[in-house]
Amino acid sequence: MNKYPNGYLPKVTYWADKVAEAKKSNDTEKVDYCCKKLRYFIGRFCDNDEQLADTMYRLTLQNLQHKQLVETFTLPNGDKMFAI
Fold it and tell me: Which of 3, 35, 36, 40 has the lowest tally of Cβ within 10 angstroms?
C-alpha cells in the first residue's frame, strides 16, 4: 500500500503553506520545522535528485518571497540567499 497515493506534490504544497503560516505568526521554531519538512518532501518528490530538489526548494522560496513572506539577500559572489 502506497503511503502517498497522490505522490509527494500535495505534501510539498502543504508544507509550503505551513511555512507561510509560521512566518506570518513569527514563530521561528515552527518556520524552521516546516522548512525541514518542506525540504524533505521536495527531495522525495524529486526522487532524491539533489540538484533538482535544491532548484525546486529555491523556486518555492522565491514564490514565498513574491508573497512577501521571505526576504532575499544577494551575497558578494552574486548568489541569492533567502531569509525566512
Answer: 3
1 domain residue, yes or no: no
Q: How far apart are CA 9 and CA 27, in angstroms?
A: 25
Contacts of 72 (CB under 8 A, 6+ apart): 62, 65, 80, 81, 82, 83
Q: Is residue 2 part of a domain?
A: no
In a domain, 4, yes or no: no
Tell me if 13 is assigned to some domain.
Answer: yes
Q: Which domain holds residue 79?
A: 9-83
- Global model pTM greater than 0.90: no
Reduced to 3 DSSP states, what percent helix, strand and coil does the chain have, rounded to the nearest 5?
60, 10, 30
pLDDT range class, residue 72, cuts 50, 70, 90: low
Model confidence over 15-59: pLDDT tens digits?
Answer: 988 988 888 888 888 988 988 898 898 888 888 678 888 888 877
